[in-house]
Amino acid sequence: MKRLFIIAALLSALACAADVFLGTQRINTDSGITLGPQGIAKRYLGTQLIFEASAEEEVLLTPAMTSNTTPAPFVVAASSQFNASDWAAWRAFDQQAVNGWSSVLSAGTHWLSIRLDAVRTVTRLAIDQRVEYNWPNYYVTEFELYYRNSSTDEWAYFGTYNPAAPVAAGDTTLDTAITGLQAQELKFVFTGNHTQNGSASLGEIRLYGH
Length: 210
Ligand SMILES: [Ca+2]
Hints:
Blueprint: H1 2-15, E1 19-22, E2 25-28, E3 33-35, E4 41-45, E5 48-51, E6 59-60, E7 75-78, E8 101-102, E9 110-128, E10 139-148, E11 156-161, E12 172-194, E13 201-202, E14 204-209
Antiparallel strand pairs: 1-2, 2-3, 4-5, 6-14, 7-9, 8-13, 9-12, 9-14, 10-11, 10-12
The protein binds calcium ion (CA).
């Protein structure tokens, strides 16, 4: 689809001699205004080109986190952390399956949450199970997804998901399309944990959308 948008944009550019494309940017030579580069040209509104690709393309919604609050304004939180280093909450969003999050080693209502940089449309959700120590005995089998648009809102239930059992360390055990979810904050409540002590643990949560 991206290629089609580029071709359409180039054809539009040829039809409108006053406009020059520079990569995905369109420069309106009449006004001297540079539009983009936040997306790919999709349609014209009068003489103005509207960039909408950023609302169409599915991208990873989270950067590689390096602490529970870095980079800002993203914030990762958890009901508990086994420790604040190797098994910290942000390890579920560091874009490395080899590093993961673990709750404390006891039964309880374990959860993870992330605050995104803005209200986003979530279109896909994937879970990578952990790689580290004793992975065959520590993985998530069920979780409930909640969402809200502001920290002052109540969490709203969105759905329940059942990742498969991993057959190798770090396996992606859930990769599913999501429709109808717009939120700035997402919360994962782990209601099924295949663990030896009631804890919850995983390698990575990947949220895609726009
Ligand atoms: Ca990770």
